[in-house]
Amino acid sequence: MIEIDKVSKAYGAGKSRFMALNDVSVTIRKNEFFTLLGPSGCGKTTLLRVIAGFVDPTEGSVTMDGQDLLVLPPHRRPVNTVFQSYALFPHLTVRQNIAFGLEMLGKPKAEIAQTVDEMMALVQMTAMADRQTGQISGGQQQRVALARALAPKPKVLLLDEPLSALDFKLRKDMQIELKRLQTETGITFVFVTHDQEEALTMSDRIAVMSAGSIRQIGSPHDIYEQPAERFVADFIGDTNFLPVQVGTVQGDMAEVTLSSGKTVAARAVLGGQGGGTTLAIRPEHTRLVPPDQGLLQGRLENVVYFGTDTHYHVAIGKDETIVTRAQNLPGSVAQFKTGDTVGVDFPAGVGQVLKD
Ligand code: ATP
């Protein structure tokens, strides 16, 4: 429903010209929870502001349901924005803050009262309706800001790192709450975050951005399981990068030879036709085995306990390291200790040959 086509944004001119967005194309579908994910400065906020109308792109088009958005001023676009700072009026009550936008739109009093009641129920703030927003907690302010943005029933809600100010526990609760709100209202959410876990847990689809460009678009599962390139594999989750030689490629599978000389099948959806390249493999897809077994052999350098799981760092050769992760099941005992020679194994088909 939102078509972003070949959008670029340049700041400055001449030598100091800087491309905050570089030829970005993406379609955001109706009713989806769509996330822009990437490191600081990659252009996420700029793209969100292009949709909102606060930034004019240098090139490209943005349409919603076929209608050109770029000709409309921000307040005429069928979108609403929730900013990182919430921007609530501290001396107004919860009820007054939520009603504010509706009053500006000139809605009838009875309709405003009804919508505000609905919104307060939705974000579970009814009990605090008459408290000033300067006197409620950060998480509660967050929910009021959301209710205020949802009240005019925009087709699209743009959210710019809305949870970043919250502490860990509250952020986790709000992630679930936001997802619930999105599902209940059916409003399209475009969500900006640099937190990969947040993106994976909440989104229907994710666009991973780097240096003004979109590197990959896909479901959380696709992005995590089939990263298209090294940047994506590195930014999302933990990944081992192993040097390999690619042999026969059949369909989307390739036979790769590891540094040990042993071969294994790996996914090669996006190329890797022969020659030396890199195999990306998640730590949880590998396991430690006795040294004479498995695909690789090395020295166990480090054992790091994380509560739910333990990470084992294995030095394979001079420049090759692999991290293996094992869940700590009740009663499980460590089989290996630092300094041991160990084997590392992983099943066929779980590694991903990367585009170089
Ligand atoms: P963060 O997560 O840190 O907010 P971001 O991915 O949202 O980062 P943007 O705010 O979109 O990044 O900025 C992208 C790049 O454009 C940054 O390098 C930033 O310095 C630059 N930039 C943003 N606004 C301007 C401006 N008005 N003038 C010049 N450069 C700008």
Automatic annotation (TrEMBL):
Enzyme Commission no: 7.6.2.11
Q: Which PROSITE patterns match?
A: ABC_TRANSPORTER_1, ABC_TRANSPORTER_2
Would I find Ribonucleoprotein among this entry's keywords? no
Keyword annotations from UniProtKB, A to Z = ATP-binding, Cell membrane, Membrane, Nucleotide-binding, Translocase, Transport
Organism domain of life = Bacteria
Domain ABC transporter: start-end pairs: 2-236
Q: Catalytic activity, per the record?
A: ATP + H2O + polyamine-[polyamine-binding protein]Side 1 = ADP + phosphate + polyamineSide 2 + [polyamine-binding protein]Side 1
- Coiled-coil region list: none
Question: Known InterPro entries for this protein?
Answer: AAA+_ATPase, ABC_SmlMolc_Importer, ABC_transporter-like_ATP-bd, ABC_transporter-like_CS, Mo/tungstate-bd_C_term_dom, NA-bd_OB-fold, P-loop_NTPase, PotA-like
Keyword Ribosomal protein attributed:
no
Pfam families attached to this UniProt entry: ABC_tran, TOBE_2
GO terms for molecular function, please? ABC-type putrescine transporter activity; ATP binding; ATP hydrolysis activity
- Top-level enzyme category: translocase
**Gene Ontology terms, cellular component aspect?**
ATP-binding cassette (ABC) transporter complex
Function recorded in the entry: Part of the ABC transporter complex PotABCD involved in spermidine/putrescine import. Responsible for energy coupling to the transport system.
Q: What protein family does this chain belong to?
A: Belongs to the ABC transporter superfamily. Spermidine/putrescine importer (TC 3.A.1.11.1) family.
Q: How does it assemble?
A: The complex is composed of two ATP-binding proteins (PotA), two transmembrane proteins (PotB and PotC) and a solute-binding protein (PotD).
Q: Which NCBIfam families match?
A: potA (TIGR01187)
- This protein is called Spermidine/putrescine import ATP-binding protein PotA
Q: What organism does the record attribute this protein to?
A: Sulfitobacter brevis
> Gene symbol?
potA
